[in-house]
Amino acid sequence: MSKTDNQMLEVGILKSLWRKNQDGRWCVHDLKGLMLKPRAGFDSDFFLYESQMELMTSSPATNSVHELFTSFGSTDFLMKQSILPVVVWVEGESFIRCIGTAFVISCIGYLITACQVLLDPQDRNYGKVVSGGNALRFMDGMRMGVLIPINPAYGYTGNRFVPFEQSWYWGEWKDSPLLHEDETFDILTDIAICKIPLMSDGTGYQPLNLSLNRFVKGEEAFAFGYAEMNDICIESEAGRLMAPDFEQNLYVSVGEVMDVFPNNHQQKDVPTPGPCFDFRAKIPGKMSGGPILGGDGAVVRGVISRSFSGEKHAYGAMLGSVMQLSLAQDKTLRQMMNSGNEGITKIQGAGL
To answer: 235 or 62: whose pLDDT is higher?
Structure first.
């Protein structure tokens, strides 16, 4: 975090720009620091940021207009390429529910959100979630996914709804002894991994940088999410479902890490499931699942889990706790990161 001439604090975020190299492997083409300055009227520890035109690289792609359009845009567009609202539409309803936040971790469409976000339909009784192993399926005409912004350089604005193809979580379903009660889920960690389809134009999603190291007490944490985002009304136009313009504000919350609980899955020191940490920050509803960055804004160390209403006190799930857990074909995130085939950022260095 730095100060400008007028003493208004700024948050610096290190963003990577990905593309395929000549042998077809995903690689980091460039890195750029984006400075997020609070808009007028906001506090420096919870704010919407000013947006300006940014160039992610001085050598943009020339062989694909789609790849070119991932490399520049407003600050807001570049951040929202990587941090996405999680939404649900139930067939027949006239609105889309906004239920949380997710963020991109891989060029081929792996995302992270909070486990509680995936379970929202069941917890609030508007949809059915079916488990199979450590994977989830959404039933009864329910579609869950994310909204991805379209670069205005195409000549129009809007978002694409991209559904979750697969979702993984870790914990145990438990039957209730009471016949009228549904089974409950005992969460091992409040982190879930989701997979969305590949980009149809051949470009990659733009992931955030991940860290295998946990927060330390006293470290500054930077959390991002779509705080209190309203549900979206939808209309039918010529047989197609359309969503009129709607607000989609990405908030930044800043606070110091107070304590870390690396053995919480065994010792149950705090009610947040699994290895976690708490930090002094304001985290309103629907920020759950968003990234928490450390290393002065360079790397993601955690995932927003839960907070206390009206207080500057929240918990985050430790990212490192899921790196060794199995996904598809028994692969783990660590294996995918090391292989380089899925385009997962591996940032190393002092303090990262």
So the answer is: 235
**Longest Cα pair distance anywhere in the chain, in angstroms?**
65
To the nearest whole percent, how much of the chain has pLDDT over 90? 61
Residues in Cβ contact with 293 at an 8 Å cutoff, skipping those fewer than 6 apart:
13, 208, 221, 222, 223, 224, 299, 300, 301
Q: Which CATH number fits domain 2-339: 2.60.40.10, 2.40.10.120, 3.40.1010.20, 1.20.58.760?
A: 2.40.10.120
**Integer Cα distance of 89 and 78 in angstroms:** 26
Between 171 and 225, whose confidence is greater? 225
**To which H or E segment does residue 266 belong?**
helix 264-267
| Residue tagged 């450590």 (tokens) | 134
Q: Strands 291-294 and 220-225, how do they pair?
A: antiparallel
Q: 296 to each of 101, 104, 146, 255, how far by Cα in Å?
A: 21, 19, 27, 12
Q: Supply the DSSP string of 163-211, one letter for each residue.
A: E-SEEE--EEEE--SSTTS--EEEES-S-EEEE-PPPTTS----PPPB-
Report the alpha-carbon distance of residue 302 to residue 319 in Å, rounded. 5
Q: Three-state SS for 62?
A: coil
Say if residue 18's pLDDT is above 90. Answer: yes
DSSP, collapsed to helix, strand or coil, labels residue 80 as helix
pLDDT at residue 7 tops 70: no
Task: Go through the chain and tell me how many residues it has.
Answer: 352
Average pLDDT over residues 247-273: 93
The encoded tokens of residue 103 equal: 């963020």
Q: Name the token pair of 80.
A: 């929202």
The answer to whether the pTM exceeds 0.70 is: yes
| 320 token code pair | 């490192």
Dist CA 18 CA 21 (whole Å): 9
Residues 6 or more apart whose Cβ sits within 8 Å of residue 151: 69, 70, 73, 77
pLDDT at 50 over 80: yes
State the Rg of the chain over Cα.
20
The residue ranges of every structural domain in the chain are: 2-339
**DSSP 8-state class, residue 279:** E
Question: Which tokens is 146 given?
Answer: 């994310």
